[in-house]
């Protein structure tokens, strides 16, 4: 790790998110931001949210599909946190609290048991999962023009901003997660279709990657947490009046509406 001031950049991103004001990417100001530095900033950012009264609802992956990797120009999965205050229960994303939000479908694992260690497999994930539900994530990069490098987006908690979790769900072994279908519809137009296999071949393997990433840092995924496996299709802008619906083959439908 370098001499980068992690708490400074965490505060920078915290202020950007809470003030809904975009900021310049860190790598435009710092030459040598390593992946370890970026996760250290992310950890310090989470601490700021927790110190501000938030709690932890779960964790997430990003950039686990070819569609997303190509859209964002970053070719590696990333890991982040889901603070409780980002979980919205009325399906409304308030745009005055956000910068330039986009929405994307998510396959969400609700854990019934902890997942710890560094050798977690997709099978272990299915064993530890209570239910799989559909969701929509609202992402909102804190960076200008929604543009970033790998380490910028890691530091920025992988653009996490809001999430809507569906209330229909299935047991993890009651469906084939590889052929689970998702149709993403924005303002009545289908903008993307995919199956679960779009997520690095298997959504459960994605969650295993996240568990192993945390395991390396002495952390674990915890029972009761929600885990987003990553969007299987492109994210779309969420503006005032935008209505986005993700329709899943076995998980019902989830809708988010953008409101001024
Ligand atoms: C990074 C977050 C990606 C996903 O599901 O791929 C993500 C971004 O696209 O801003 O959450
Ligand atoms: Mg996502």
Describe this structure as you would to a colleague.
This protein is α+β, with helices and mostly antiparallel strands and 260 residues long. The protein has one domain (6-259): Fumarylacetoacetase-like, C-terminal domain (Fumarylacetoacetate hydrolase, domain 2), CATH 3.90.850. It is built from six helices and twelve strands. The protein has helices spanning 6-19, 35-51, 66-72, 122-128, 150-155, 203-216; strands spanning 56-62, 78-83, 92-94, 102-111, 129-139, 160-170, 181-186, 189-195, 226-228, 236-237, 243-248, 252-259. The strands form two sheets. Strands 1, 2, 4, 5, 6, 9 and 10 form a seven-stranded mixed β-sheet that branches. The protein has a five-stranded mixed β-sheet with strand order 3-12-11-7-8, with no helix packed on it. A hairpin with a 3-residue loop joins strand 11 and strand 12 (252-259). The protein is globular and about 50 Å long. The termini are far apart. The mean pLDDT is 97. It binds 2-oxoadipic acid and magnesium ion.
